Amino acid sequence: MAAEPVTTSPLRVAIAGAGRVAVAVASLLQDRGHDVVSVWSRNPESTKRAARRLSAHTAPSVAAVAAGADLVLVGAVDDAIADVAADLAEGLERDTTVVHFAGVLAIDVLGAIPGPRAALHPVQSVPDVDVGIRRLPGSAWGVTVSPGAEDWAHAFVRDELRGIPVDVAPEDRALWHAAAVMTSNGIAALMSTGSALLNAIGVTDPQSVLGPLAAGTVANVGAMARPGDAFTGPVVRGDAKTVELHLAALGSRAPELVDEYKLAAEGVVAGAARTGRVDARAAQSMRDLLESA
């Protein structure tokens, strides 16, 4: 049974651009008792797929999708949001709220939208809709809104999406998004490098070896006061001999990965120095070793 919605009456929700986050949010809103009434996307197959999933009507145009809607979720790719918003503005009522989910963009990209506008960016990896439905509750959302919409946006994220609202100034959204992108893709990039190293010694299932390690590290970061407290290993210990052995083995067995190792090690040095895990002299000594390799 769906939970009772926080609002006094169900919202009529439309989707303009059937991106993964927009469809996942719409599904969560349905579970809260709201009505997803219409879907439009530039890709007809995406439109049909989302409409079928949500038991919603398909709209013939972006201007038509918003007819009668209380809330429009703009799920278009970043570069298309301004164009979608311009077309939406033709059919919107003044009190219709429009939300986009792009991390780097603020509300000015929504242009001439007459009613409340919000940029709500989830700090979560959403590879598909089903994963998004599971992961978005409990996630943080970067909130940037038009004047007067702050309370609504906080309540929407907190009560309807079961998320954590975090206010982000328009001029700060690029750094907000960069932090999320670097963390998510940085983890994936390091896993890729580690997997390539294990492949070089004949390990055919590196994911089973490195997956628990990565999960444990993320858990350590979450449990500690500062991310830097979770650093371990020879770079933080200043164990130059071990790092030299790593570099020698890489040069012999996987020379194409030497630069990736050095880049990752330099990141560890910088993070450890920034959080006081190593002093300036030890950090410089390790940098000198990495640069000379």
Shape: elongated
Helical residue percent band: 40-55%
Q: Could you give the distance between the termini? A: 61 Å
Q: Main β-sheet: number of strands, strand sense, barrel status? A: 8 strands, mixed
Q: Provide the gyration radius in Å.
A: 23 Å
What structural category arises from helix and sheet content? alpha/beta
Q: What spatial order of strands do you see in the largest sheet?
A: 3-2-1-4-5-6-7-8
**SSE order in H/E notation?**
EHEHEHEHEEHEHEHHHHHH
Average pLDDT taken over every residue: 93
Descriptive keywords:
single chain; 293 residues; alpha/beta; 8-stranded mixed sheet; 12 helices; 13% strand; elongated; disordered N terminus
Structural overview:
The structure is a single chain. By secondary structure, the protein is an alpha/beta fold. The protein is about 50% helix and about 15% strand. An 8-stranded mixed β-sheet has the order 3-2-1-4-5-6-7-8, sandwiched between helices. Helix 6 (about 150-160) links the parallel strand 7 and strand 8. Helix 11 (about 260-275) runs antiparallel to helix 12. The radius of gyration is 23 Å and the shape is elongated. The protein starts with 11 loop residues before the first strand and ends with a helix.
